[in-house]
Amino acid sequence: MKKNNSKNIKDIAKEEVLSPEILPENDEFSESDENLAEDNPLDKLNQAELDARKRDFEAEAIPHMKLLYNYALRMTGDQLEADDLVQDTFMRAFRFFHKFERGTNCKAWLFRIMKNCYINKYRKTKKEPSKVDYEDVQNFYDSIRDDVVDPNDLEHKVFSNLLDDELMSALNSLQDDYKTVVILCDLEGLSYEEIAEFLDVPIGTVRSRLHRGRKILQKKLQDYAKARGYSVESMA
Amino acid sequence: MGLNTTTFNIDELITSYADNQITDPETKKQIEDLLEKDQKLYAKYRSEVLTRDLLRNRLPEAELPAATYSKVILSIDNLVAESKKKYSAAGNLQTAAAEYPSFWQSIKQAFTEKFIGVPRYAFAVLAFVIIGGLVVFSGGKKTRNPYILTGKESSIMIQALNSFHKVVKGEVKPQLTSSNAAEIEKFVMEKAHFDPYVPEIENYKLAGVVCNEYHGQELAHIIYQDNDGQMIYIFQVPITAMIKKNLDLPEDVHNEITKAKYYMCDEVDENDCTMTLWYKDNNVCASMTTMPKQEMYTTFTRFNK
């Protein structure tokens, strides 16, 4: 959040415009396996250097495996794919560990590798469920009535009756950009700052994606509730 | 978009407020004032908090499976071992290049001068005699799997092969005879202290289970049989056994399992048995059967979903 005490809230809001981020298609971690096999940076290390790298990697990177596994599990929605994604990420990270700057955020570094692994390998082959368009949801929220007193008790009741599968399915209906921030913030409990560092985007983008992601989720959850016979008209 | 940009971004600030990410007290106060005055905005705020809490409470953090952890550690170990091998091979090549004449010079020298008298050719001839002997000893049949041919006792492949032979010869009898998967699982949990994988195999019936130890490492051997007495035997051990170095798998086999999800080979013994290795849950599984490879592949892909 920018510090700007003298400004009006609306001005602050205006300043933090959305910055559309395009994920890099290729970077140092997105090399093909063939390239890695041909020019493996590990092959240049002697035995002592290899042992030292393994020791450092186990101390710096391995402790973050649980967080990465959880992210992978939510992104892929499948335990086996999550397992593969974690393994690919750590293999790549180990090969390129010389590129990690000591003293910087190793969790964020690993996360960026995982994101690239996911984009390069998994997203291409994964059957994606139909994604919800934010524009539709935006129109839906435009129609929120002013005279609503407190829809939340009802919403709470309806939502708490939803199944975990429906919740997962709603989460999976988000576009990857939205899903990523929702997972990192709502499930992993990371701060906006951390997420911004992970994704290498401004905090404003994190906030915007989170806002949109949650809105889409709400809409999706209400659709499920409707399909199960709950009256959700009064919630809107 | 229906809302103008300013309103739209205020909605986003409400998101930050809901997540307690606004550090500036003045901005915070302005948002709180707005929420108090604007019922519609307040409803949006509550709805956002509700969605976030729903996710947090209903989709809790998953535990990292021990098998995932073990596979990563094993793969790193293998990467290091491979690179060490390559590094020393490169070092040896450099030394050899300095010490020895070129390949063609060596050939010429070998055939024009002494042949057996040159130690490196003596080794080559000796190796040729040993391999030839093995081929003759095995009745000149098909080549055996190189990992089994060179495997040590601690190799999971060797352990599975030897145990399978003992079961087939009747030297090892099931400690529990049962066709009930739950009973077999319970038995392994009690005797070997790990959760085994006991799949249902089409046309095969569970026959029983044996648990034993190898250098303190607890193992399970699960036996299936069909109506003709044909057997599928599954050796199982927790993946952690490889981390502790109690048992091992050849690097190439591990890599193949990681890549293709399984490793399958036939001609593993004089009966042309088929061996399949794969990781399931937290275990390494190695099955043995007299079934031909193609048939086993079909069976395996059906039961190991």
List strands and helices in order, with pairings.
The complex is a heterodimer of chains A (236) and B (305).
Chain A: H1 9-15, H2 33-38, H3 47-60, H4 65-76, H5 79-95, H6 106-125, H7 134-142, H8 152-160, H9 164-172, H10 176-187, H11 192-199, H12 203-227
Helix pairs in contact in A: 4-5, 5-6, 6-11, 7-12, 9-12, 10-12, 11-12
Chain B: H1 5-18, H2 25-37, H3 39-58, H4 66-99, H5 103-112, H6 119-137, H7 146-149, H8 156-169, E1 176-177, H9 181-192, E2 205-214, E3 217-225, E4 231-238, H10 240-243, H11 251-260, E5 263-265, E6 274-280, E7 283-289, H12 293-303
Helix pairs in contact in B: 1-3, 2-3, 4-11
Q: Helix count of chain A, per DSSP?
A: 12
Looking across the biggest beta sheet of chain B, what order are the strands in?
A: 1-2-3-4-7-6-5
The value of Rg of chain B in angstroms is 31 Å
CATH architecture of the largest domain in chain B: 2-Layer Sandwich
State the low-pLDDT regions of chain A, or none: 1-7, 12-28, 31-37, 140-150
Helix/strand-derived class of chain A? Answer: mainly alpha
Query: Roughly what is the average pLDDT of chain B, rounded to an integer?
Result: 80
Characterize the overall form of chain A.
elongated
Distance between the termini of chain B: 46 Å
